[in-house]
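Appendix B, example 12.
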Amino acid sequence: MPQSEGSFDFGTGAPPASKSDSSKHAGTGHRERLRERLLKGGAEALADYEVLEYLLFAAIKQGDTKSIAKDLIAQFGSLAGVLNADPAALQRVKGVGRTSAAALKSVATAARRMARSEVSAKPVLGSWQALLDYLAIDMAHLTVERVRVLYLDTKNRLIDDHHVGDGSIDEAAIHPREVIRRAMDVGASALILVHNHPSGNPEPSRADIQITQRIAEAGRLLGVTLHDHVIVGREGHVSLRAKGLI
């Protein structure tokens, strides 16, 4: 005769596991397997959605995070897209609350600070790839165009990372004289102009080239060198100096 719900299994002397208990144990086992793969194989042992799964464990103590992780990737396109997304946008994905959004943003913040620390203490021109990595983490996934000027000392060390503003890069948004004046104020001998293209394509526009040349000329008059203008996008980066435009 079939056992009724809650009856004992006389072979073991214990009540059978409920469906919810089985799911809970299965979920625990999955989390433990992911943990072991991460610890033994490193980040490359996990797919992008599995990295997100693991990050969500801290905010979602029980239950399936795989479907949430896959939905996040589908919504924002990539792991980097998720980590750089606005918290309010993250919370529009089913299953993501304030705690989960905060957990994801904390990882993005840690990544930025790690990348910045690789740039801050070293001559920028001697650690160019570290600078590009930092700029990609910080700017490639922005949804608005942002302009920054990195001011350098005589040893090409970063002394000021100035956020000029958000918007199209032209003389209405960034004034060559103001850029050079700030260089004088902070004691900089060189600078690197940086901005992003939210479209993803980092190829320079005519306005990008024109403002670069005006800043370079203004700097030459006062002994401040424009080392480069770097444009960052999701598809990569472009150096105007490498293109022969400075």
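The CA atoms of residues 37 and 45 lie 6 Å apart. The mean pLDDT is 83.
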